[in-house]
Task: structure prediction
Amino acid sequence: MTKAVIVGQSHTVCMSAAAAATPGWGQFPVYRVRSGDKLSDPDALSNDQAIDLVRKLNENVDVFLSIPGTYHNILGLVRSRLDFDFFLNPEDRLLDLDYLVPRRVITSAFDMHLETEALVPKLKGVAAGRVYVLACPPPKQDNAFMMQRLLAKWNKPYRGQDIAACGLNRPELRRKLWLIECERTKFWAESMGLDFLHAPHAALNDEGFLAEQYYAEDATHANEDYGLLILKLVASVTNQNKGLLK
Result:
């Protein structure tokens, strides 16, 4: 019996792999939505197919959305021409960089991006059961690992930037941008009546980054073991909803 479905984009790959490799997780099917108009991706759903899928679920099936959550990479993965930093907390120690950006500017950038997210409100509008938004995985800390994977995959500019020439931003900046994205996504989700679920604490290292045992073999995604953590989180929330946990 299906208790919940997970619908999302590239971060659902690790969840699908975990479900396929671990017996007993068929009650939490995972569906991937194709990015944009990539019709060459036959295994993924279109937006309309995802909406139709959720519309047909009854009120006893929870919906978990792995959408949105990767804008911090667009803003802060590859270094820009001028290095920048911002205060996440008053006690932050900042480097002497070109630009100190006000926190409200960073926050506004994420808010403006979230305003363009059209699929989540549509899925919420057709869902009969409860709907949750999953945080995307924490960023990786190891710049050397990330750079190697990026250069192996991309023989062209990454979002208009030459990766080899620019390099990657400091891990600390990536983590702060991810935390801001989680904060603003939570606010945005709750404003629509959706619950936001943070990344599992077990997946973090002591400094708040994705622990190495959960690295996928690329710069920005998590692996099957992380996917299993998410499936267990989904199971916990769903069982609580059904009164199966005390």
Q: What stands out?
A: The longest helix spans residues 171-191. The first strand starts at residue 4 and ends at 8.
